[in-house]
Write a structure and sequence with these properties.
Distance between the termini: 50 Å
CATH class: Mainly Beta
CATH architecture: Sandwich
Strand order of the largest sheet: 1-6-5-4
Number of domains: 1
Largest sheet: 4 strands, antiparallel
Radius of gyration: 21 Å
Length: about 140
């Protein structure tokens, strides 16, 4: 399944898919839903935003391997409630893992990430050869 399909003639080569989402699962309960994603493109880069509230930046594991950007996190919460001689324990486990296949036009060594206000934001800069070229006027001889 393609997340973004493009046929953009301003790039020197044709790209069908920039990003392809893959979900690798986890424990099947409602707390393991994939985070929502927004993808924006401008002349110099792509911005990838994932909505993941209630975490800290230390909760995330982010990797780039073979042109695949993988974002994952897991958390474990244990709550104890004692009433008289009765003790109740509740365990909660939430995880997700989301992967995006990156285009060859992305400069992999310059990817930046920032987590603020529940949004994990990636800046994916384009390689120099993928940037739009200025218009050129050709004189007739």
């Amino acid at each position: 399944m393609s997340l973004v399909k493009r046929n953009n003639t301003r790039h020197p080569f044709f790209i069908n898919e920039f990003f392809t989402p893959d979900w690798f699962g986890g424990i099947s309960n409602d707390s393991n839903k994939e985070p929502s994603v927004n993808i924006k493109e401008n002349d110099k880069d792509f911005t990838l935003e994932l909505s993941i509230p209630g975490r800290t930046k230390e909760d995330f594991k982010i990797e780039v391997d073979n042109d695949v950007l993988t974002v994952s996190a897991e958390s474990k919460l244990e709550a104890n409630e004692e009433k008289g001689s009765y003790t109740r324990k509740e365990f909660s486990y939430a995880s997700f893992k989301r992967a995006f296949t990156l285009s060859e036009m992305i400069e992999l060594n310059k990817i930046d990430a920032e987590y603020k206000d529940g949004i994990l934001k990636f800046t994916l800069p384009k390689k120099e050869e993928a940037l739009p070229k200025p218009k050129r006027v050709i004189d007739i001889a």
